[in-house]
Amino acid sequence: SFTVTSEGCKVVLACGIRFYFPPGAVPEPLQIFFQTLAPDPQWVKLRHHDVLLSRVLELQPHGVQFQQEVQIWMPCASPPSLQHREVVVQTFSGQSWSDLSTRVEQKRKSKKHVAHCSVLHFSWFLVVSRLVQNECQVAAEGTLLFSSVDPSIKVTFPPGATTDTRSVKLQVLPVSAEELEDITADQGCRASPLLCLSQDSLLDFLRPVRIQLPLPPGVTGLNLDRSRLHLLHGDLEGQSWDDITSQVVLEFTHLYAVFEVSHFSWYWLWYTTKSYVGGIARKVYERLRLYQVNFIALQRKKDPEQVLLQCVPKHKVEAVLKRLQDRYRGPEPSDMVEMFEGEQFFAAFERGISIDADRPDCVDGRLAFIFYSHLKNMKEIYVTTPVDRKGQAVKGQVSFYRGEVPKGIPEDASRRRRGPDSLWLATLPIKLPQLKPCWAESSGALDGFSFPALNLGNAETGYLTQANLLSIARRLGADWQSLGLSLGLTYQQIERIGYNNREDLDKQILEMLFSWAQQNWEDPECVSRLVRALRESGRQDIAEEVEAVLELGRHKYREALGRLQLQRHSSAQGAATASL
Q: Does 54 participate in catalysis according to the annotation?
């Protein structure tokens, strides 16, 4: 959190988010709370062809009205080609997400993109890339709406088409001949850009609306074979595509087709010799929403129990592996699979290997992910095994499975993903090497130390127990000195610990960590200080695991508190009934 006064201020968060509160934005000092959240598809509702570019930013207090607009700069992933797309910041208001006027800026040095918007109150915010949206207000006098992506696509509203002013939105999705041929394997297929029209009224127009679409590539009014041209109408979810060629009057110029409709949805011109065009269009539309991805599972070279799992778009795999090869090793990436934006999947460790922590993102022992094509679908976790590794290595595996089928995908795709076999995506090998006789069993890991049992933190913030500290110690290596300095130990203390245990690296780590814990266990900020020190010393992986353990502890505490309040309420009701 931070505090804003009537004088205004500029605020820069560690994650790169920036704020500007102009003088007079708040009449009196106001404490602002912030947090970034992983997007949950249950309430982050993406429309077709939307791409998520950021995590969710929550700003509180909700609903407080500022006297002047507050500016927000949100870092976001590099958007797809901006030729047919635009970047917008969306905010959650009431029951849905709405758009904010957004300007995209690119930092000169880092080349990173930032979405800039202004608001008068705080809520939840995120950044998406979507098809360029053109909008107009249609009154009784009529108007003309055309696409800024393809100005030849026009919608003409005649006078008297509506009695009440309504808002109409237009989006265009270009489809290249190469894409179409790759999906259909038919060189003869051609299609116009996809046109999506929507409005804020449930009523049809009173007079037909005139639409102009360009003819498919290579087709002109001179060489047109009308028997091969099909006008398709799709529902807003893209589930079904109907051939309405015989239901409308099609007019042709040298380059365009013109027709009239009274209600809005998707419209698509196809030029093909195929008979069942609707089925082909549904298949093509589905493929246009899919991403080709590979899974990778790598183990840290210095600590094979630390496993990095990631779902990577196919064209980024080589660059990602090159960036990680100095610190990680592992098998080749999985075979290519296809996934929708916002689709859930799970990672399950099998054949003698399991996750070495009780994590809030685990469901029935499986690690839960949500695929977003432009975000890092990556998690680093620690694994363990019940097998005694002193005598042998453990050869296990990690398998990836689909989760819930996203809403709004074609029924054919849903049917293909039902049943246990259809949920499997890929399997990659994981090997835990034979242990060297270096670490004692955790029960004896503190031999030679006289520290009493420790509980860092409190019930509300979450506890770190002695077992948690042992788990952290086991994952540290020669970098323990950097962590010690970040925790506030002096250089002389670090030197003494190293000298006293100069024959045993493990004891150096234990004495550093438990000495600090023993000195600071009464400090309510000691746990957050440990997480901050882990980040500062470059161990983001351990910091995230500690935060997961703390979040799980807080969750259990809140559940226990809720049960206690419920019991008290029930007891009070019982006593009142008895007195009557």
A: no
Parallel, antiparallel or unpaired: strands 256-261 and 209-214? antiparallel
For residue 456, give the nearest of 328, 546, 568, 574 by alpha carbon. 546
571: annotated active-site residue:
no
Alpha helices of 241-364 — where are they, by DSSP H? 277-289, 317-324
| Model pLDDT, residue 311 | 96
Residue 440: pLDDT band with limits 50, 70, 90: very low
Task: For each of the domains in the chain, give its residue range(s) and CATH number, in order of start.
Answer: 2-131 (2.60.220.30), 133-275 (2.60.220.30), 298-406+421-432 (2.60.40.2660), 455-557 (1.10.533.10)
The per-residue pLDDT for range 451-482, each reduced to its tens digit, is 445 566 666 666 777 777 887 888 887 778 88
Mean pLDDT of the chain: 85
Q: Are strands 366-371 and 362-363 parallel, antiparallel or unpaired?
A: antiparallel
* Per annotation, catalytic residue among 263, 315, 555, 569: 263
Which listed residue (6, 116, 118, 123) is catalytic?
123
113 in catalytic set: no
**Residue 412 scores a pLDDT above 60:** no
Q: Which residue has the tokens 């438990």?
A: 514
Q: Residue 527's closest CA among 457, 445, 432?
A: 457
Catalytic residue among 6, 116, 118, 121: 121
Hey, what long-range contacts does 180-189 have (CB within 8 A, 24 or more apart)? 180/284, 183/283, 183/284, 183/287, 184/280, 184/283, 184/284, 186/272, 186/274, 188/272, 188/273, 189/270, 189/271, 189/272, 189/274, 189/280
- Report the alpha-carbon distance of residue 347 to residue 368 in Å, rounded: 7
Confidence band, pLDDT 50/70/90 cuts, at residue 206: very high
- Among residues 240, 265, 482, 515, the one annotated as catalytic is 265
Residue showing tokens 């000495």: 515
Q: 123 an active-site residue?
A: yes
